[in-house]
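Reviewer 2 asked us to include a model.

Predict the structure of this chain.
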Amino acid sequence: MARKAASTAQGTPTTGAAKSRFGQLRGWLAAKLSYDEGLDENGKPKERWCPEQEAGLISKLFFFFTGGLIQKGSHKHLEQADLWTTHSQDEPAKLWEAFERDLKATATAQAPQGVLSKALWRAHGRLFIVTGVIKIFHDGIMFTQPYILEELLNHLTGPEDKGAALGLAFALVGCAILEALFINVYFNMLFRCAR
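Predicted model (structure tokens):
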């Protein structure tokens, strides 16, 4: 009885410390993954900004950096002042300079102004190749899902090991997650290219 009371007394601070650590972790995650209204280190509003520029890899892959704006939009109508500025790599002046440089590089004696198709390939060719590879992976995953589902159904209806069926179910879920991730990245890259 005394040992139980001692363990209960000792458990209380540990539980409080665990809650405190959980609260700290939750606060840290919220700071990393959310929209901070564009405040500087003094807590004053920055000039309009794009949180994607400061977002980490995971935040960019899963679009966590958009959470704050979505949350703000669920509470009120968004106005122009609520929206972000254009990402620095998407600024029209920079894009025009890069395209003009690529167009001049394709100029020949027959086409002194440059060749538009070659200039577009120089400007965006690598991006189209990368998005093509991503789309091939996406389509491959998409076409494997029916086969995994067929094997899963065969395992469930037959006398085979149920552990293998569980593994196939996890594989099916994993494929669905990867498919969604690949298609999100694919469309984000293409929409950015179409800027």
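The longest helix spans residues 116-157. Confidence is low (pLDDT under 50) at residues 1-13. We have added this to the supplementary material.
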